[in-house]
Design a protein that fits this description.
The protein is α/β, with parallel strands linked by helices. The protein has 2 domains: 128 residues, Enolase-like, N-terminal domain (Enolase-like, domain 1), CATH 3.30.390.10; 233 residues, TIM Barrel (Alpha-Beta Barrel), CATH 3.20.20.120. The chain has 15 helices and 17 strands. The strands form 4 sheets. The protein has an 8-stranded parallel β-sheet. Strands 3-2-1-17 form a 4-stranded antiparallel β-sheet, with helices on both faces. The chain has a 3-stranded antiparallel β-sheet with strand order 4-15-14, with helices on one face. The protein is globular, with a radius of gyration of 20 Å. Magnesium ion (MG) binds next to loops.
Length: 367
């Protein structure tokens, strides 16, 4: 049994409204979707959601990397995921979003070949996953109103995006907490937006609003700054942009810079390496979250299966498909009920039908 064909598609997904975080704002995401077809009738889907800021990748670099990797997959056994991942790393360094698309499609095939939902093959620790809902940066009052709407929809955890202006950020967090009351978990994400001094100041001021953790308070490269925030902050510190690989995780743990790690498939290069990051973290007593860039339901399904499978992945931020007005997956995939992401009965990622118009024709076919 071997890989017969790799198809590469480009999709554009509009947000319901512009999505703003500390480094900038976006109105749509352009992602690359991969379909791997085997010679025994099973196919797998994967997705790359490149972020120039986080990994240096763009749609163009993903296409270029896939043009080098995909021809080498033809004839390979799709179930030998580690062997295929090793091949990708030999062909090109880095480029984790591009590799995540292939890794995800291989895992989809693995699940379908076994006839099981993927999360069962990844450990099967949970059967559903609680996700937060992300509040895009707006005025404090507008964010409080968005928070109330999300809680009315059933979300039990909110991620408050901050990192633009310390005193306004304190107001954002205060007004969201006051608007939703005590029963909702609040997480904060500064996306590298504060200096260590600003982070320590803000976090001490918002401690009384009961924040579960703060994500990436300072720039990704500033490991010493992150360690300092962790030491002087009353709120647990989660690394996101600072951790792409198992060795990044190990380094930050050694530097005593993290309490938690946000794993994203577009940073790790897919599910296989995401599990390795979680394993390194678990050995140090550091729990993990699975987050997202700007994936459609394909990438979100992959993240959710991973989060359900692995015990040490205690948190999930898997909501970006919910922020898109364009829906690539018409049937199947991971659904949402309140704050819970639920899995379909189907095997692999559980995707059943994609929107042919959004998917369009393949940009490239390798066979
Ligand atoms: Mg983050």
């Amino acid at each position: 049994m071997g890989i017969e064909r790799v198809e590469v598609y480009s999709v554009t997904l509009r947000y319901f409204e512009p999505f703003r975080i500390a480094p900038g704002s976006s109105e749509k995401s352009r992602n690359i979707v991969v379909r791997i077809v085997t010679d025994y009738g099973v196919e797998g889907w994967g997705e790359a959601s490149p972020s120039k800021r986080v990994t240096g990748e763009t749609v163009e670099t993903v296409l270029e990397v896939l043009s080098r990797i995909a021809p080498r997959l033809i004839g390979m056994c799709p179930l030998r995921v580690e062997q295929n991942v090793e091949m990708m790393d030999r062909v090109v360094e880095g480029n984790p979003a591009a590799k995540a698309a292939i890794d995800t499609a291989l895992h989809d095939i693995l699940g379908k070949t076994a006839g099981k939902p993927l999360f069962m093959l990844l450990g099967g620790f949970r059967t559903q996953v609680l996700t937060d809902f992300t509040l895009s940066i707006k005025t404090p009052r507008e964010m409080a109103a968005d928070a109330v709407k999300a809680v009315e929809k059933g979300f039990r955890a909110l991620k408050v995006k901050v990192g633009v202006n310390p005193s306004e950020d304190v107001e954002r967090i205060r007004m969201v907490r006051e608007a939703v009351g005590e029963g909702v978990e609040i997480r904060v994400d500064a996306n590298e937006g504060w200096s260590p001094d600003q982070a320590v100041e803000v976090l001490n001021r918002v401690e009384k609003f009961r924040i579960r953790f703060v994500e990436q308070p300072v720039p990704a490269h500033d490991v010493k700054g992150l360690a300092r925030v962790r030491r002087d902050s009353p709120i647990p510190v989660m690394a996101d942009e600072s951790v792409h690989s198992p060795s990044d995780a190990l380094r930050l743990i050694r530097e005593e810079a993290v309490d938690m790690i946000n794993i994203k498939l577009a940073k790790s290069g897919g599910i296989l390496k995401a599990r390795k990051i979680s394993d390194v973290a678990e050995a140090a007593g550091v729990s993990c979250m699975v987050g997202c860039m700007s994936e459609s339901e394909i990438g979100i399904a992959a993240g959710a299966h991973l989060a359900a499978g692995v015990r040490n992945i205690e948190f999930a931020d898997l909501d970006c498909d919910l922020l898109h007005a364009d829906k690539l997956v018409k049937k199947g995939g991971v659904t949402v009920s309140g704050s819970m992401r639920l899995f379909p009965k189907g095997s692999g990622l559980g995707l059943e039908e994609l929107d042919a118009e959004i998917l369009g024709k393949p940009l490239a076919v390798y066979k």
